[in-house]
Amino acid sequence: MLEIVVQSRIVVLVKQVLDANVRPRVRPDGSGVDLAHLKLSMNPFDEIALEAAIRLKEQGAAQEVVALTVGRGKAQDTLRAALAMGADRSILVESEFELEPLAIAKTVRSVLADIEPVLVIAGKQAIDDDCHQTGQMLAALLGWGQALCASRIALSPDQVEVDCEVDNGRETLRLPLPAVVTTDLRLNTPRSISLPNLMKAKSKPLDIVASSTLGIDVRPRLKIVEVREPPVRSAGVRVHSAAEIAQVLKDLEAA
Amino acid sequence: MKILVMAEHNGTTVESQTLAAIAAGVQIGSVEVLVAGHACSAVAERIAGLEGVERVWLADAPAFASQLAENVAALALELMPRFDAFVAPATSRGKAVAPRVAAILDVMQISDIVAVDGPRVFKRPIYAGNAIQTVESEEPKLVLTVRTSAFRPLGERAHVCEIVPVATVHELGLSELIGSDVVKSDRPELASAKIIVSGGRALRDAETFSRTLAPLADRLGAAIGASRAAVDAGYISNEYQVGQTGKIVAPEIYLAVGISGAIQHLAGMKESRVIIAINSDADAPIFQVADYGLVGDLFEAIPEILKQLAA
């Protein structure tokens, strides 16, 4: 029997967040954003990361796509979605704490030791805490290079070339492997999940690892003092002609 | 508390975001600034003359020419034993470097602060600005990125502080810049412009977008911005996008033209001092945040405004 050697594996970091179409509600007591009974989905930037990994596999640049998440038990739903999109297998590191990016990066580093990916792809940020840290922290802990906010990823056997969206345009980086790439909106449009693929995903591997078995201190480092609604901006006046707008601009310019 | 602020610069000029990061740093403690680059001594000299800066560290070497995050983070880490906090503007570079510094220091970073409530207490937006979190750090060292539109830059002063060269070169070889496609424009930079004229999907196409908005922007000395819908429709490139997924801006005047005001767009501009909106749809959400709103056809309104401004 032929032994299949997996040479090139991509790990995609996914996070379950409040669905992007649900308006976040701040709890009146200031303790946080209310997630109870609301729709949770894969972080949209992570969906793009997963789509990128699947396409690299389809192009033959990678042989296996592993979806990895660190979170609560219900994050299994997000991994099922990842498997249905096209990930080959998935891993949940289950934790009772709401994990901060540093704890997630340390946890992922520990899990990666067994997987030995050539590339880790993650969304540039999660749309809940908007931290924009995990990919960079992971790269630093591993001593790897990083390319952020990718709008193009070209993977070859010994390097990856990435177009990165930066403040004033685009930079192209070349990195030796392994490396960390984070994704931006313009990289691709993630595929939708078909019913047959959803059924198939049920038979794909979803391994659950208890965070406590990894020996990493994942307790929160930062204290959330409070979470409040932003100050409301009240609507101003309706004007009725372009001339009035011009007058407003003149007055503001003169002020 | 001793603060090391990372300078954002292009080798010759100091980006305004650096000034805002210094302003945030001054609210926490005494500020020294790290300038990493190649042939960038002019940048260090300019920063040495800025209000609130007590010392400039200049790492001037070919290895830092592209200001690659891996190398700059290693450099910052070499200096961090002298400092209690690392502060970077929340620019592409700052956001690339700071988390690497935090991870190696083994501290949690606080991203995108918009207010300093105390030396270790900060406010930051979460959920694209739909909630504001107040966070306290007991970490041995602070690592912060600063939403620069939230801090008013400090000015220049008469005297200059010392500039200390850093000799160590960090060339980790973990990444290499092989190309860059940077937008050059005679207009003010979007992130720091006092006035922004921003267009949405109603501008029809790239040619109409430019032909309609450019004369007004030129007359007002304004930067041009765009909604995500306009960018996605190909009217203008992504560097001009204002919103949660683009740039966060807070100019003196934000003129929203044919922009409906999706939540993700509002997240990027609702801190502007004065918002003026022109839209044909009276129910457009942009009017809920606008100080002045005109319901009407932008293709009639913009030429009329130009005419009135010239009068």
Note down, in words, how this protein is organized.
With 255 residues, chain A is of the alpha/beta class. Chain A has one domain: HUPs (Rossmann fold, 3-Layer(aba) Sandwich). Chain A has six helices and 13 strands. In chain A, helix 2 crosses helix 5 and helix 3 (101-115) crosses helix 4. Chain B is an alpha/beta fold and 311 residues long. Chain B has two domains: 2-165, HUPs (Rossmann fold), CATH 3.40.50.620; 190-310, TPP-binding domain (Rossmann fold). The longest helix of chain B is centred in the last third of the chain and has 15 residues, at 206-220. The radius of gyration of chain B is 21 Å and the shape is elongated. Classes of the chains: A alpha/beta (255), B alpha/beta (311). At the A-B interface, helix 3, helix 4, strand 7, strand 8 and strand 9 of A face helix 3, helix 4, strand 5, strand 7 and strand 8 of B.
Order of helices and strands of chain B: EHEHEHEHEEEEEEEEHEHEHEEH
Give the helix/strand class of chain B: alpha/beta
Number of domains of chain B: 2
For the secondary structure, the number of strands of chain A is 13
Largest binding interface between chains: A-B, 79 and 85 residues
Gap from first CA to last CA of chain B: 54 Å
Look up the CATH topology of the largest domain in chain B.
Answer: Rossmann fold
* Sheet of most strands of chain A: 9 strands, mixed
Overall mean pLDDT of chain A stands at 94
Rounded to an integer, what's the Rg of chain B over CA atoms? 21 Å
The name of the CATH superfamily of the largest domain in chain B reads: HUPs
- Secondary structure: number of strands of chain B: 16
Please tell me the total number of domains of chain A. 1
Poorly predicted tracts of residues of chain B: none
Task: Provide mean pLDDT of chain B, rounded.
Answer: 95
